[in-house]
Amino acid sequence: MVFKMKKTKIAFAICGSFCNMENSISELKKLVKKYDILPIISFNVAKMDTRFGTAAETRKKIESICSKKIIDSIEGAEPIGPKNMADALVVCPCTGNTLAKIVNAITDTPVTMAVKSMLRIQRPILICFASNDGLGASAQNLAKARNTKNIFFVPMAKDDPINKPNSLVADFSKLSENLESILE
């Protein structure tokens, strides 16, 4: 008798820090080799064309990498927790706006619903933060989130201290090792 090992299921939510989209996609490509990935995108990622690419191109790229249809609605994200659709959730990149919504229990996007759904069943959330205002008004939300059970952060640093003194960006290359750590 041959037993197949089931891959760990990871929900991977992408928000609209468009300048970090390639970093996020690059990490997604690495994770899909080891985990069963359930892709989720914010409303902005689903509809906005930017200088970094079109919404259609981004969607096509993500669905191709994951070999799954993207969850892009609040209704689609709601059952993730209660139906045990994922063992953990990665939010990469997580914008300052999304983090503010998470810590203030505002559930008005597929990503914030996925977070709420996973916290409901006490599963770990790994946030890969990216914000030009991380050390400004968003700093209070970082502090609140760091004090919330089951929310973890990929290490971050200033990305341009001279031109953007309040900017913080996660070290995307540390995502995989941090994910392994929270799964333990």
Give a verbal description of the structure.
Strand 4 (125-131), helix 7 and strand 5 (151-153) form a beta-alpha-beta unit. The protein has one domain (9-183): 3-Layer(aba) Sandwich (Rossmann fold), CATH 3.40.50.1950. By secondary structure, the chain is an alpha/beta fold. The chain has helices at 21-31, 43-47, 55-66, 74-77, 96-103, 110-120, 139-146, 175-183; strands spanning 9-14, 36-41, 88-94, 125-131, 151-153, 156-157, 168-170.
Please state the average pLDDT score. Answer: 93
CATH architecture call: 3-Layer(aba) Sandwich
Distance between the termini: 29 Å
Strand elements, count: 7
The low-confidence parts are: none
Sum up the overall morphology in one term: globular
The helix count comes to 8
Strand content: 15-25%
Keywords for this structure?
7-stranded mixed β-sheet, 184 residues, 8 helices, Rossmann fold, 37% helix, alpha/beta
What is the strand and helix layout of this fold?
Blueprint: E1 9-14, H1 21-31, E2 36-41, H2 43-47, H3 55-66, H4 74-77, E3 88-94, H5 96-103, H6 110-120, E4 125-131, H7 139-146, E5 151-153, E6 156-157, E7 168-170, H8 175-183
Parallel strand pairs: 1-2, 1-3, 3-4, 4-5
Antiparallel strand pairs: 4-7, 6-7
Briefly, what is this?
This protein is α/β, with parallel strands linked by helices and about 180 residues long. It is built from eight helices and seven strands, in the order E-H-E-H-H-H-E-H-H-E-H-E-E-E-H. It has a single domain (about 10-184), classed as 3-Layer(aba) Sandwich (Rossmann fold), CATH 3.40.50.
